Amino acid sequence: MKKLMLVAMTLTLAGAVWAAEGMKKEKAAASASVTLTGEVLDLSCYLGHGAAGGGHMKCAKACLTDKGAPAGLLTKDGKIFLLVQSHEGEKAYKALCALGGEQAKVTGTKNDKGGLQAIVVDKVEKVEKP
């Protein structure tokens, strides 16, 4: 009986160590610094009724800056990223919201959790049209 308990405890400990290592690897893979360019979206209007582009710019800016709608980034390849404010990045996130409906270059930490891709915004730059 003591041998069985020892084996069970050893397997439990090994499983816990294995799970912890797996979580470390998953976290490291999920978070990476990136810089992406795309249209700053008001996700409420975009997901609700497909509103995007220059014709929606005024509304996007108002929804992002005045109403606190969630922001997103639509890249050229059609991917959408949720944009979130970091603890230190309030100024960058506010600048981002002022660019609703416009092209911007966003730098931050990319996270993928539960299938949702997000960028914690550290820096934003307006992209001028050529």
Per-chain topology:
Blueprint: H1 2-30, E1 32-42, H2 43-49, H3 57-65, E2 71-75, E3 80-85, H4 90-97, E4 103-113, E5 116-126
Parallel strand pairs: 3-5
Antiparallel strand pairs: 1-2, 1-4, 2-3, 4-5
Account of the 3D structure:
- This protein is α+β, with helices and mostly antiparallel strands.
- The chain folds into 2 domains: 1-30; 32-126, Beta Barrel (OB fold (Dihydrolipoamide Acetyltransferase, E2P)), CATH 2.40.50.
- 41% of the residues lie in helices and 34% in strands.
- It has 4 helices and 5 strands, in the order H-E-H-H-E-E-H-E-E.
- It has a 5-stranded mixed β-barrel with strand order 1-2-3-5-4, surrounded by 4 helices.
- The N and C termini lie far apart (77 Å).
